[in-house]
Amino acid sequence: MIQKLRLIQRAHRYRNRHDPAELEAIRRALRPGCTVLDIGAHKGAYTYWMSRWARPNGRLVAIEPQPELASRLKSLYASARDISVMHGAVGSSVGSITLHIPGEGPSHGATIRELDGSSGVTIRDVEVPCFTLDSIVSEQRLDRVDLIKCDTEGAEREIFAAGTEVLRRFTPTVLVECEKRHSEEGSDPVGELWAIFRELGYEGRCFYAGQMIPIDEFDYGIHQSDPGHKQTYGNNFFFTHPEHKLPGACCGGGCACAR
Fold first, then answer.
1. Distance CA 201, CA 224 (A)
2. I want to staple 154 with a disulfide (CB 3.0 to 4.6 A). Which of 127, 170, 182, 202 is the partner?
3. pLDDT bucket at 259, cuts 50 / 70 / 90
4. Residue 12 has pLDDT above 70, yes or no
5. Neighbours of 212 (CB within 10 A)
């Protein structure tokens, strides 16, 4: 009961304070019957809202690499028939991979990228299963994917570069975190990510100061200059495809596809 109360409190903090614009965009993008992937579910704040907005008849698959958090999510949603929790990371190949976790407990900074430890924080290395978008769709037997939320601390480019077949097949709406500070010196992570989606016919925008700006206007020097100020730090990107059809949308909700 305490864990469920904490989840609800956390979910409301995210919707009302931390990520109100992002969650409102997701709410507008979902309909009953949608299928959602929550990659990097962490403590479940997004899982909580997205699963509610996809009901009834929806499906949510939460993927979380940190063992403690994955176990907690499995316990919280053990009785939820529309929510599946997978313990593991998502990357470019199926197998196992080393997860680097800063600190002694669960961390927002857990990543499959190499960490140098120069900050003096203890880094724990844990071997975890690794999935791809394709393997998740196959293992969970999904016949549609309407929305993907992805927060993986720097692994997003390899995830979507390896998952273009899923993007091409289902044209899901995608909310993804992407930051220059999680990348190599001199790299352009946002540009590289945008190239993947643009090639597939997507439109891209960045959340900044409670608004969405076209991704072509994104500038690291302006929109990612100060990670300490959440409201003026643009690290969440929203990709939409003009051909994506929500459940029941193909003929106004009266045909078999809506049932």
1. 26
2. 182
3. very low
4. yes
5. 17
Give me the phi and psi of 80, to 5 degrees please.
-90, 110
Chosen CATH of 2-91+134-258 out of 3.40.50.150, 3.40.50.620, 3.30.300.350, 1.10.340.30: 3.40.50.150
Domains of the chain, by residue range, sit at 2-91+134-258
pLDDT tens per residue across span 149-200: 999 998 999 999 999 999 999 999 999 999 999 888 889 999 999 999 999 9
Count Cβ neighbours within 10 Å for each residue of 179-204 and write b for 16 or more, e otherwise: bbebbeeeeebbeebbebbeeeebeb
Pairing of strands 203-208, 236-240: antiparallel
Q: Hey, what's the torsion of the CAs at 208, 210, 215, 220, to 10 degrees? A: 0
Structure tokens at 216: 């072509």
pTM above 0.90, yes or no: yes
CA distance 46 to 204: 21
**35-56 mean pLDDT:** 98
CB 85 within 8 A of CB 41: yes
> Token pair of 116, please?
């140098």
